[in-house]
Amino acid sequence: VQLVQSGGGLVQAGGSLTLSCTASGFTFDDDAIGWFREAPGKSREGVACITASDGSKHYTDSMKGRFTISADKAKNTVYLQMNDLKQEDTAKYFCAAKYWGQGTQVTVST
Fold first, then answer.
1. How many other CB atoms are there within 10 angstroms of residue 20's CB atom?
2. Which residues, 6+ apart, have CB-to-CB distance to 23 below 8 Å?
3. In this predicted model, what pLDDT tens digit does every residue of 39-74 receive, in sequence order?
4. How far apart (Å, rounded) are the C-alpha atoms in residues 27 and 38?
5. What is the predicted pLDDT for the residue at 98?
6. What is the mean pLDDT of residues 15-35?
7. Using an 8 Å Cβ cutoff, are 50 and 71 in contact?
């Protein structure tokens, strides 16, 4: 039972990346699934979340308009599409729903 993340990597400022988070051994059902990030020297912060049952979405203000969270219930997968990435978006990104994903590094270069 785990959340398996994929995606991430190195991208230039202004570029885009998509992160994936797939549940293994359980289904999202009515869960709220969230994306969080942790930058060096900073505490973990929320990025976005989605409710599997009705698809309602919420974003941290600084990510609104640039990041999009979505879910594919058939694939038991949640995505985070990140556009217009900035250097300050550099962090390790985690998904969470009952469990934490393993984290994936996103590095934005200038």
1. 18
2. 2, 3, 76, 77, 97
3. 999 999 999 999 988 899 999 998 999 999 999 989
4. 26
5. 87
6. 92
7. yes
For residue 102, give both structure tokens: 């393993």
Q: CA 17 to CA 56: how far, in whole Å?
A: 22
Q: How far is CA 51 from CA 11, 24, 54, 60, 97, in A?
A: 29, 18, 6, 15, 10
- Pairing outcome for strands 99-100 and 67-72: unpaired
- Measured CA to CA, the distance from residue 2 to residue 24 in angstroms comes to 5
**In the predicted model, what is the mean pLDDT of residues 18-30?**
91
In the chain, which ranges are continuous DSSP H helix? none
Q: Counting beta carbons within 10 angstroms of the beta carbon of residue 82, is it exposed (0 to 12), middle (13 to 18) or buried (19 or more)?
A: buried
